[in-house]
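Quick question: what would this complex look like in 3D?
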Amino acid sequence: AQSVTQPDIHITVSEGASLELRCNYSYGATPYLFWYVQSPGQGLQLLLKYFSGDTLVQGIKGFEAEFKRSQSSFNLRKPSVHWSDAAEYFCAVGGSNDMRFGAGTRLTVKP
Amino acid sequence: DTEVTQTPKHLVMGMTNKKSLKCEQHMGHRAMYWYKQKAKKPPELMFVYSYEKLSINESVPSRFSPECPNSSLLNLHLHALQPEDSALYLCASSASPLSGTFGVGEQFFGPGTRLTVL
């Protein structure tokens, strides 16, 4: 069965610092992978997705993620964090009919 | 139009009330979903509609009753809810449902309805 693990429940970074959020998945075939962001009390916004092809994926708001099959990982990165990036980040595996979310990582940005 | 809308934004109801949540999309998507999200938790899938037919019910109690009147609309009818049903209810849609397998379409989420059951 497919599953997603986000090892970090909460991460705090300083504004302007780089960011990496970890995501590991378990799936028997080539997975479809997603990163979503959720601000408090809001819905989920898609940051980026990986289906196939280039393993380095560019998304919105300056985010990127790299698919590493050998490590079953799909980590999210941003070179310089802005205060507005403070939110909950969810990694997900799946697609149209069945989306499995990780537990989420809450990002706090220090001034 | 690339958004999913949900009404109302907030809803407070008693345990004996009957209310409905509404979700709408005009992207031509043929799959629509209801999720329940408790605080500090990921969304949990409740129902999936594919081509206006219920295709997945994740063992949701019968006090939640979904309805898909047409390809753009999805309702969730609520009756005799419990305080533990208080949560953020999210609607989502995707372009291409593939029953039993993963499709290639991501899900687009609405802003949610914050439900409080007293």
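Answer marked as accepted. The CA atoms of residues 52 and 70 of chain B lie 6 Å apart.
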